[in-house]
Amino acid sequence: MNVALPSGDTVATGFPAKWVGAGALLVLLGVGCGAVTVLGAPWLGFALLAGGAFVTAVIRRPWIGAAGTAVLLYLLPFATVPVPLGGFRLSFLDIALTVTLAAWLLRSVALAGRDIRFTQAGPGIAALVGVMVTALLFSQQAVSAEIFRFFLKAINSMLLFFTVVNLLRSPAEVTRFARVVFLAAAASALVAIGLYLLPEARATEVLAALSRLGYPRGDRLLRFIADTDTLRAIGTAVDPNVLGGMLAIVLPALVAQVVTPQPVMDRRLLVGMTLLVVAALALTYSRGAWFGAMVGVGYLAGVRHRRLWVLAAVVGILVVVSLPGQQLLDRFMSGVTFADRAAQMRLGEYKDALRLIGAYPVFGVGFGAAPSLDLYVGSSSIYLLVASQMGLVGLGAFVTSMFLVLRIAWAAQRRIDDPRMSGLLVGLTAGLLGALAAGLFDHYFFNLQFPHAIALLWLNAGLLVAAALTATSAGSHPGPSPEPQR
Predict the structure, then answer these.
(1) Residues of the chain where predicted confidence (pLDDT) is lower than 70
(2) pLDDT value of residue 483
């Protein structure tokens, strides 16, 4: 579904409209920054100037904003501006999301006059946002200012879907953005492995240095398996399960690129990146993320790349016969059989969540606290968490929105002849399915406390839909995609 907007390439001066608009914007920014610097805080003026430069760059080359957001999501998801503003500190991710969204809207409405892609998934996502607002307004308990702020962050993160879909308009732009995502994920994995291999004291010092950017401080920044001294990789994601989910959503796409006939990058580089992501994912000891990655790769093997079953068999044998592999297998099986304390606590959470949903089945309890002491909001599952906060109506809206995204991809897959775009599309589909599978056992992809994980889910959904739309609208011609207009 596209919404047509008025267009025009020139103004009365004879100059291109986009140059006139950009020039006017720079003048206004210069005047505004000067006034703020003189009358207010000097740092704020420079921050506005930097933000204005970013907006101008995004207007000129729209994918830059989305690419910068992807890099932040993987490398510094919790980083905040060092100087507080009005009692709280803006995160760099908040700024990137908002600036990119505003720049896209400005470019579409005022400069380029492009149509807006609402897509067939748009109504489902709009309905989901509507249910979220309804659940917020009718929360059983009062919502604090902090929760309301995180709610706005979550909505902003979800809007990234529309930003990505509308910024990536050609196969070349889609593949270039996919490269950025792959490289950012591999860099995140490399950082996680590096911190894992450092002595614990040194790793703690490195993580503590990030406290200047809003990261946690203290001497207990590393994470271990409960009741053991087994270290878990966290990278800059703070939580090992969150890092696991961030890597699990991209791993199937990387695997697909390694085995597809025409990958979007050099295959040798892709192999190295895939091994980094696999190693970091293993070191998180996140069983939910492992399960999601296996579902994603299993989807690839089932629908496209049958030889992956052979690779899976080889990996399975290595896991069984090697000592590190046995440790990973023991960790996974202790979760499946609910043999360890963490798994038993998770099972208790599921039971309590079902009780809460049974008591408030329609719109849940909202985003505040539970209304009684014997109930609480908090479950290690996307689906139970959504149903607890927004009821079965909200759960239905979430599942429907994800299904609509996947339906676009599945429909496009049948019409694409270009092996490069086809390989990318099936990998992105597998990644999203893997994330949804991981959501059975973890909540971060829809937990207000992790807005960057929410943004990552919708970024991948947006990239998947953008790949489907651009590949089919380009005529599905095989061969390399042309470079986008600059």
Answers:
(1) 1-52, 54-55, 85-87, 110-114, 323, 474-486
(2) 41
Q: What is the pLDDT of residue 129?
A: 95
Helices vs. strands in the chain: H and E counts, helices first: 19, 4
Q: Are 66 and 18 in contact (CB under 8 A)?
A: no
Please name which of 448, 63, 101, 78 lies closest in space to residue 236, comparing C-alpha atoms: 78
CA dihedral 5, 9, 12, 17 (to 10 degrees): 90
Q: Which domain holds residue 407?
A: 117-473
CB neighbourhood size of 366 (10 A)? 26
Q: Give the E-state strand segments of 280-378 in sequence order.
A: none
Please give the tally of structural domains in the chain: 1
pTM of the model: 0.85
pLDDT value for 423: 93
* Residue 5 domain-assigned (yes or no): no
Maximum CA pair distance of the chain? 75
Helical axes 171-197 vs 200-209, angle rounded to 10°: 130
Q: 141: left (phi > 0), else alpha (psi -120 to 50), else beta?
A: beta
Question: What are the tens digits of pLDDT across the range 62-103?
Answer: 778 899 999 999 999 998 887 776 667 788 899 889 888 888
353 assigned to some structural domain:
yes
- pLDDT given at position 15: 46
Question: What 3-state DSSP class applies to 159?
Answer: coil
424 inside domain: yes
Amino acid identity at 9: D
258: CB partners within 8 A, 6+ apart: 267, 270, 271, 274
Q: What is the DSSP letter of 484?
A: P
Query: Is 46 a domain residue?
Result: no
Contact in structure between 293 and 430 (CB atoms under 8 Å): no
